[in-house]
Write a structure and sequence with these properties.
Elements (H helix, E strand, L loop, with lengths): L14 H10 L1 H11 L6 H13 L32 H14 L25 E5 L4 H11 L3 H11 L5 H10 L5 H7 L19 E5 L2 H25 L20 H6 L34 H12 L6 E4 L13 E8 L2 E7 L3 E8 L7 E6 L10 E7 L2 E6 L3 E8 L8 E3 L10 E2 L11 E7 L2 E6 L7 E5 L6 E2 L3 H10 L11 E13 L6 E11 L6 E7 L7 E7 L12 E7 L5 E7 L3 E8 L3 E4 L2 E5 L6 E7 L4 E3 L3
């Protein structure tokens, strides 16, 4: 097929003529656009863009105008006006201009031209389309075309594909808006290979199809579905009233909503244990506590407590014992207590891992506080009570439902009988003077709780959970009830502040050795105190030396995170420098029953068979102490 006559500038046809020209010469026009488009677009995109530019070549009105035409002007006449080919030159020029515009870089200062806009149609999803591959000559020609600019490629195509003479090529390029048509014609090269432009290699109407990246498409589809679902959920939530269930008090603004979180914050879904479930439950820990307090049915209060737990505002004072996560509940927690305590309103909640205390003033919510304490692994021995409030040095406790009696005991006065306390019907104690009031260890109050046939001694160490006090060697721990055990605790109670606010669950003290002192100065007692924490990895151990007649024990050694003095490693070894009544200094050391011999070196030297050692030493001597166990292995001092 030869190109129609284009000796003069085309008269703009009406829409029907332009459409007839596009339909009749569609393969030629698409090939022209494909060859002129920038090779950097890639073969698939060039194919689709070429089809799009050709289909968009129709004039907008009933009679089209070319870009650059003067409105109201009369176009030049041409031969054959009104013939069957009258619209071809017009649509060819529109296709050529759009293909050249596609190669112009976009800038922020100018509006995009028609050819620079993405092709809206056609669209092919999931397939990559490209012409059939040619031979080596076609490949070489395609590579050479890629080195030319857009006007150079257009000059080649007009000459080779359209069969135009050089003057006609210059005219058409000028009409298409090329700034330097002569340079484009000069760049178009040798016409010896013009016949190759009709090769199937450059025919975007005869195509091969291959799939796109299947895995990437699958990931994109899944991500799109997830994004659409999230958008739908967010839109639905944004359409909900902002008030929700009610006022959240001092809670931070609500930043996210989901079904599980909303259920966890719904006071109507709080878990409430039956009042007598602890009698038959296989677990006797906080999960068996019933909901108590005069405001256990105050929905607004419970809503505020749950909301602050999930999103404490900037004004809320938050504290957590070491090793305790302070995040929101994973599901509806259990209500333990909600009521008025002194000048505050207190809510206690339990989620299986933690006990959470929310407190606010009786009037308003300014100054609200939120406290977290880890309680996993609790038992009847360690779930005997919780601290409700601390006001003016006084402490109120909420006791376990199985506690039938309570008494106040001063550890520093072991000979005195404990003072009986009257519990409220909901298990709340009266206000009790806290340990070491005013920071002076003139007294140390502990709470003696009786229930299920056992009396347990607990004390406040700055946590939500009071610490249980026990006596006995590792593996044979028992509650403090005997006079001798109370006497030992009277000597070491003032060392308890060193483990305050460390998440302590139990504190055990036991006498691991007694040592006759040199020069007949009496018998000393060696004690080991182990404070076990709820997190189980930061236990604190102290070895203490109690000289005869001394009111308080002296700390001989300490360690943190050590298994010494516990069920895993029941042995302990420590030493001190001691001065006799006559003024002589000695290195005194004692180990538990597992030690067969002790030795000391450095500022003083000596050895002894058994688990006790006494060696003369100068004042301020620095020594190294070690021992051998009964199985022959060497063991060092507690540190």
């Amino acid at each position: 097929m030869t190109a129609p006559d284009t000796a003069t500038r085309p008269l703009a046809p009406d829409v029907e003529q332009a459409e007839a020209a596009i339909v009749e010469h569609y393969p030629r026009l698409v090939r022209l656009a494909y060859l002129v488009l920038p090779p950097a677009l890639g073969r698939n995109r060039r194919v689709l863009t070429a089809h799009s530019l050709t289909q968009r070549a129709l004039p907008r009105g009933r009679r089209g105008t070319l870009p650059g035409d003067v409105p109201g002007g009369v176009p030049a006449q041409r031969g054959g006006l009104g013939g069957p080919e009258s619209g071809y030159a017009y649509v060819r020029l529109r296709v050529l201009r759009a293909a050249l515009e596609a190669g112009i870089p976009l800038t922020f200062r100018t509006l995009p031209l028609r050819g620079q806009l993405p092709a809206p149609l056609p669209r092919v999803w999931g397939l990559r389309l490209f012409p059939r591959a040619g031979g080596a000559e076609e490949l070489a020609l395609d590579q050479w075309l890629a080195t030319l600019n857009g006007p150079g490629r257009a000059a080649c195509v007009l000459r080779a594909l359209e069969g135009l003479t050089e003057p006609e090529v210059l005219r058409v390029l000028a009409e298409a808006g090329v700034a330097d048509p002569a340079a484009a014609v000069a760049e178009s090269g040798d016409p010896a290979h013009d016949a190759l432009f009709s090769s199937p290699e450059f025919d975007p109407c005869v195509l091969q199809a291959r799939p796109t990246d299947l895995l990437r498409r699958r990931r994109f589809a899944r991500a799109s579905l997830a994004a659409a679902a999230a958008l739908a959920v967010c839109g639905a939530l944004l359409a909900l009233p902002g008030g929700g269930w009610g006022s959240d008090g001092p809670a931070a603004p609500l930043y996210a909503r989901n079904a599980a979180a909303e259920q966890a914050l719904d006071p109507g879904r709080l878990v409430r244990a039956e009042p007598a479930v602890w009698r038959t439950s296989s677990r006797t820990d906080y999960s068996a506590w019933p909901a108590r307090g005069d405001r256990a049915d105050d929905t607004e209060l419970l809503r505020r407590a749950l909301a602050v737990w999930a999103r404490p505002g900037k004004a809320v004072v938050v504290s957590a014992t070491p090793g305790t996560p302070s995040g929101p509940p994973m599901g509806p927690p259990q209500l333990l207590f909600a009521g008025t305590v002194d000048q505050a309103v207190v809510v206690l909640l339990h989620d299986g891992l933690r006990v959470v205390r929310y407190a606010e003033p009786r009037a308003g919510t300014a100054g609200a506080a939120l406290d977290f304490a880890r309680t996993d692994g609790a038992s009847a021995d360690t779930a005997t009570g919780l601290v409700l409030s601390r006001v003016d040095g006084n402490v109120r406790y909420l006791t376990a439902p199985w506690v039938t009696g309570a008494a106040l005991r001063d550890l520093l006065k072991p000979a005195e009988s404990p003072a009986a306390l009257k519990l409220a019907p909901d298990g709340v104690t009266p206000p009790l003077l806290g340990p070491a009031p005013g920071g002076n260890c003139t007294s140390w109050n502990a709470l003696s709780l009786t229930g299920d046939g056992t009396t347990r001694l607990v004390t406040d160490l700055g946590e939500l959970t009071p610490a249980r006090l026990t006596s006995g060697a590792p593996g044979a721990v028992r509650d403090v009830t005997e006079a001798a055990e109370l006497g030992e605790w009277a000597r070491i109670a003032c060392l308890l502040p060193s483990v305050r606010s460390h998440g302590v669950r139990t504190v055990n003290a036991w006498t691991y050795a007694k040592q006759p002192l040199p020069e007949g100065d009496g018998t000393a007692t060696w004690l080991c105190t182990r404070a076990e924490t709820w997190q189980g990895t930061a236990d604190r151990v102290q070895a203490q030396f109690l000289a005869p007649g001394a009111p308080l024990a002296a700390q001989a050694a300490k360690a943190e995170g050590s298994p010494a003095c516990g069920p895993r490693e029941p042995r302990v070894l420590a030493g001190v420098l001691w001065k006799s009544r006559a003024g002589q200094w000695y290195v005194l050391a004692a180990g538990s029953a597992q030690f067969a011999s002790l030795s000391v070196s450095g500022g003083a030297s000596g050895a002894a068979t058994g688990n006790r050692l006494a060696v003369k030493a100068p004042e301020g001597a620095q020594v190294d102490l070690s021992g051998k166990l009964t199985d022959g292995t060497k063991a060092g001092v507690l540190r």
